[in-house]
Amino acid sequence: MSEILLEGRQLTRRYATDAGRILTACNGVDLMLGKGETLGIVGESGCGKSTLLRLLTQLERPDAGRLLLGGEDVTGLKGEQLRQSRRHIQMVFQDPAAAFFPRMKAGDAISEPLRNFEKLSRQEINKRVAQLLELVQLPKDYAQRYPHSMSGGQRQRLGIARALALNPSILVCDEATSALDVSVQEQIIRLLVDIQRQRRLSMIFVCHDLALVQSLSHRVMVMYLGNGVEILPGDQVWNKACHPYARALLDSVFAIDMNFSKPIAPLEGDVPSPLDLPAGCPFGARCPRFMERCRSEKPPLVPVAPDHQVACHLYNMA
Amino acid sequence: MPMIQKKRQFLFFLIFVFCIVAIAVFAPYIATHDPGRAVLTDATQGPGGEHWFGTDRMGRDLFSRVIYGARTSLSATLVLVLCILVLGGSLGIVAGYLGGIADTLIMRVSDMMVSFPGMALAIAIAGIMGPSITNAVIAITMVSWTKYARLARSLVLKIKHQDYVLAAVMSGTRTRHMLWRYMLPSVLPTLVITAATDMGGMMLELAAFSFLGLGAQSTSIEWGYMLNEGRAYMESAPWLMIFPGLAIFITVVAFNLLGDSLRDLLDPQGSNQVFQKNKRSVGMMKRFLKVMGLMMAVFLGFSVLGGCGSQAAQSEGGTGKEAHLNFGCYNYSDSLDPATNVNSSWCGIRYGITECLFKFSDQVVAQPNICDDYTVSEDYKTWTLHIRGGVKFSNGNDVTASAVMASIERLYAQTDASQGGAGNSRPDGYLTYASIAADDQEGTVTLVCDKPNSNIPGILAYPYFSIIDTSVADQEIIGTGPYKVKKVEGSISMDLERNEHYWNGEVPYESVTILFINDSSTKAMALQSGDVDLVENITTASDLEKLAADEQYYISTASGVRTGNSYMNFKGVLSNETLRQGILMAIDRDTMCNVTVAGMYTPGISVLPSSLTYNYDKLTDPFPYNKEKAIALLDEAGIVDSNGDGWRELEGKNIELNSVAFSSRNLNEFAEAVALQLSEIGIKVNVNIRDYDTALALQNAGEFDMITSNALTVSTGDPVEFLGNWYSGHSASYGFYANPEYDAVYEELMAELDSGRRTELITRLQQILIDDASNIVYGYYNSRMISNAQKVRGAEIATMDYYWLTTDIKPAE
Amino acid sequence: MKRQLAKRLTQIIIVLLGISFMSFLLVYLAPGDPVRAMFAVSGNIPSEEVMAEIREEMGLNRPFLMQYASWLKNCLQGDFGISYSQGKPVAQMLASRVWPTLYLAFLSLAMMVVMAVPTGVISALYQNRPIDYVMRSGTFLGISMPNFWVGLLLLYLIGVKLKLLPVVAVGMGFKKMILPAFTLAFAMAGKYARQVRAAILEEMNQDYVSGALARGLSESTVLWRHVIPNAMLPLLTMLGLSLGSLLGGTAVVEVIFSYPALGSLAIAAIIAMDYPLIQGYILWVALIYMLVNLAVDISYSFLDPRLRKGV
Fold it and tell me: Which of A209, B108, B320, B484 could form a disulfide with B394 if both were Cys (CB 3.0 to 4.6 A apart)?
């Protein structure tokens, strides 16, 4: 793998609820992102994807674990230092409608990152804005428009333009296409891929659409209940995924070419809540291959093949 | 209501409000007169003719004042609302966005404010800080910001986690920009709307403050204050109260309508006619009304039952029956113990409970009372006082010489902190004695003073020295007066009963109820409604006029022993004699006393009241009121206006007199009236109305050109102390007057012990002060006793403030 | 539940401490000399030396925190100092007026409810019909007229001109309190009636009401057993707040009608610059207010089952 731009070690984030119980959104997640690489993250709602993203983008500080940006530990940064480190990692949001301040024109929204870090003249700013709009294939005069007067797809392009304003090395997409119509989705994905290739951008792509994630990502991480349970190359997901949860996910995808005679085996058991996590494997209660060991010991991520790690006692020989 | 109608409504009310604002802005063009221009003799005229709304008690045009008042009232309200908005809004935004300690702190403080009845706190704050519009605004802001803070905070919390906020943070936007560019614009519209709907209420609160005397003062033209002024003239000049009140009302209505229509406009929810109108509704409504009606009936029933029989017993007259008197008076003190403080000692004598060894006549000369005879040594140090025989306390105990001595000793002991006394009276300011002894056989008390003193009778007539029964003094105050205390109900009322052992004649009433009424108008109304049959001192002009016009009421007036005057500072520009003389000639004392303060004072020229025995009639006034002569005098002396700005100059500089006054006994009205009159001859006066404390401080510091004063000139019957204010040794706090001739006569007076010679000297001193134009004397404060002539007779007021309920006051035949 | 109560009580104590500190600070910072203020009342100012002595006696030369601490200590023992103007213990003076204040407040509150609730309900039910407009105009007048004006007019018309009711509200006989209570109630009724109307309208627009009607429940049942009770709950808290403002806002009415309760005591104290009395007043009113609110909240939690679980 090329140089590691972003690394998360045992990232943990907990919240205290009103009733006094602890909600563990992220439970010791390990993550690595290389240059020019796309990492896809999949999982159900409540698995902690959004929280993980907030930790990675330093919108929140982890309760335990470390975050390294370009090799430097940025976990405890505050104030101006923190602000400066934001230049390197930017995010595209899920809901284009909510991602823009209604009172701000599109051009101002895009140029805001610029104005925050550099002292540029009005012409300079206008020039950069025009460049960015061109990059995302939006007409130049859109700079004077308000975001709410654009379509969802256009707004999402705008979001990408804003995210790229500072030329970050890492782009995080939080379900960036989920709120869009399918036809539009494709355009956006294509755009992202183009940009990535041009700039050798690293990307983290969070999605619940397995097929999409597979096709887009160099590597994929499967998350369950705040834990990363499997990491493997994107093109191997369909065939080589071995964690019981990952397999269950894959099995639940209906495809035209699937085996129609095979019985549909839904997962048994209640969905546990991230409140008061049990010790042991988080998937234990629902795992069809549950063992005694799984109740008491949480399985760590161990490699089972080059570039392929799994957190499951079935594969943990230790 | 369809949208278009809502918009139209809003627009309509907006225009309405704009009109009012326009009136304020264009006041100079709309007003018919100068709102500050006073023509004293035109006071309190009705609406009509030249004055569309009539005139106020200074002769100023009311219409113009109401128009100009819009400026003050509107701007003050606007400032208030803005302050609340800014303070509350910013605190709320900060609390909401930053969270953590800032949030906790701000929210705790806000909880604290909410846990307190706002107005009470605001009143207390304004009171402590001193009354002024600014302080009223500050006080109200301090208790009202919490609503806006909570609103702003909740709005911020709602948007704080929106994606665009996160995006902005990720874009590296600094926190202060986040607050300013994102939070504030999102919060502002709601806050402004809330503020608009609150304008009306805020205006009412400011007006209430001014009404209570805690807001605008007389120097500003403000509606609430005008209402307060007009209240005294409710019956004789109701327009003074009607028009400012209407102005407030209309403005508040306008703002409330605006606010309502704004809210309607923005309120997404209209109305769904959920319940159909049909017979069922009507039936239900009937049932509802029945229930409510029943509740009200029960309510009223209880009230009627509760109300019966709780009225005070009516005053009754006639001999042979149980004669009872209801006496309404201001509550100066709940205590009657002469040692507690000045007020309580006065109350004891005023209510006829206690008496002193001596008593002042109407010429304020000390006459024997409980002491019926006395001798004094040649050096005027040893006084032997003979106690009248047969005098008893109201509990039957004899008033012996020892009892008298014990009473005096107790007074000193109780007011001496080193002996553990808690009383606040200061008898040692009047008399310090070396020894006191009692001889019960002879019935004499011998007092040896520290220094020679010719006025022991006068001093002992002072209420501090009232004689009480020390053997029971810890439980109750028992004196020798015609009445004794039966029951005290807090600050509400006091029940008295006849002292069966009274030594000095018949006590007309079997029982007396004193009702404490602290408001002059209410006192007058209580008299008229029959709740009381006797009241002391009505100070509100219109009530007094009305009672005077009604034959049913008898008003006894005594030009008392208090002089109202203004000291002049001889260390300032007023050291110029011609200027002083011109000033005196420009002042119409008679109109001020009779019209402006509606007869509260008897006009006078000397610093000593005309009612005293010091030859007032023989004094001459070289500077009577003559405006033209005043102008001529100043012109001749070269004190003219050379630069055309309308004000005269002295030695090249504009004359600007700093006139300090405090609001008590009409002194502020005098100061204003003087300022107005002087401005008519071209002398500029700045009137500074302060609280008593501050005014006194200014006086002591010599920071004034003129300063008002209302002083009791003869608390012990002898004016020597008061006259000392102009003695160069003491005059530092009274204007630095220094005249060698005055000093010489005064020093002679201090040493002189013969009363005849003293009178001569005192007469001379008065004339010197008059000839020197040394201060502006207004007059002498009138005391009054008003009674219902059909029920009470003999209700005369004494010259001296100490005597109210005397045995001369009897039921009418 | 008990834990919540304890928490509330501690909160009250903390707030009281804060308020006492603030009021003490205010007085300390206020212009003017307290000793001179003491004598200003009688107009009899002693010499500077005497005043300096007194200042020393009263401990006014000690540092601020010490003065505050000793004042606080005294307060906790029930000694709120001696009033400058009356020479009596502040605690006693305040105590004698607490009951009249509460009595007037509750009476006004009762009147207000009797006036406001029917008005509000009728207004809501007959929304936008003539009677609604009439009532709304009435309430509008109520909130727009300065209450001291109303009081004066009433006093004049009913007390003097018509001699229907006693002018001087001395003693707590019910008849004497009608006018002051009514004056207070009138302005507040206007505001409250509008709140009642809004609350009922909002409740009527809830989905469950449409659902209930659709299921065939009669209008009167829905109204009396569901809408009004549910709407009343938030109105109860507003009632508590109204009580609070009544406690504080009686000053004007007390002055006009000469009704001796806490408000007029405060005004008199302010005019006389009687600082101990002012400080005591602030503290007492705060305490009463919070206790009353606590009582309201407790009763509120009994009425609303949703709250019982965790107050």
Answer: B484
Tens digit of each residue's pLDDT (9 = 90 or more) over C71-103: 888 888 878 877 766 667 888 888 888 888 888
Neighbours of chain B (3+ CB pairs under 8 A): A, C
Across the interface, of C12, C148, C282, the residue whose CB is closest to B211 is: C148
Residue located via tokens 């001192």? B537
Q: How far is the C-alpha of B194 from the C-alpha of B196, rounded, in Å?
A: 5
Strands A89-92 and A4-16: unpaired
Question: Is C23 within 8 Å of B312 when comparing Cβ atoms?
Answer: no
Which residues pair with residue B777 across a beta bridge?
B565
- The whole-angstrom separation of Cα B157 and Cα B161 is 7
- The CATH number given to A4-88+168-255+263-315 is 3.40.50.300
Q: What is the 3-state secondary structure (H, E, C) of C2-41?
A: HHHHHHHHHHHHHHHHHHHHHHHHHHHHCCCCHHHHHHHC
E-assigned strand segments in B490-616: 493-498, 511-516, 534-536, 553-568, 601-603
* Topology of the domain covering C103-273: MetI-like fold (1.10.3720)
**Beta-carbon separation of B167 and A86 below 8 A:** no
Closest CA to A133 of A147, A120, A119: A147
In this prediction the pTM is: 0.73
Domain boundaries, given as residue ranges, for chain A: 4-88+168-255+263-315
Are the C-beta atoms of residues A169 and A202 closer than 8 Å to each other? yes
**Interatomic CA distance for residues A147 and A155, integer angstroms:** 6
Residue B311's pLDDT is 38
Facing C289 at nearest CB: one of B109, B117, B489: B117
Delimit the domains of chain C by residue range: 103-273
Q: What is the DSSP letter of B187?
A: H
Q: For chain A, give me the number of helices (H) and strands (E)?
A: 10, 12
* pLDDT tens digit sequence for B735-754: 888 899 999 999 898 888 88
What is the residue-wise DSSP string for B220-283? S--HHHHHHHHHTTTTT-THHHHHHHHHHHHHHHHHHHHHHHHHHHH-S------S--SHHHHH
* CB-CB contact of A132 with A165 (8 Å): yes
Longest CA span, chain A: 68
Of C175, C220, C248, the CB nearest to B307: C175
Interface partners of chain C (CB pairs < 8 Å, 3 or more) are: B
Distance CA C150, CA C183 (A): 7
**pLDDT single digits (tens) B219-267:** 678 888 888 777 777 667 778 878 888 888 889 888 888 888 887 777 6
> Among A50, A56, A80, A112, which would you mutate to test the B interface (most chain B Cβ atoms within 10 Å of its Cβ)?
A112
pLDDT, one tens digit per residue, over A58-112 is 988 899 899 998 888 888 888 888 888 888 999 999 888 888 998 889 889 999 9
pLDDT band at C49 (very low <50, low <70, confident <90, very high): confident
Q: Under an 8 A CB cutoff, do C50 and B426 touch? A: yes
Q: Please say if the pLDDT value at position B340 is more than 50.
A: yes
Distance CA C181, CA B760 (A): 60
Distance CA B15, CA B18 (A): 5
The pLDDT of residue B272 = 44
From the list B163, B174, B182, the residue facing A99 with the nearest CB is: B163
The four Cα atoms A301, A304, A309, A310 give a dihedral, to 10 degrees, of: -60
DSSP letter (8 states) at residue B61: B
What are B513's two structure tokens? Answer: 């109820």
Interface mutation vs chain B, best among C51, C79, C168, most B CBs within 10 Å: C168
3 state DSSP class of B375 = strand
Phi, psi of B789 (to 5 degrees): -60, -20
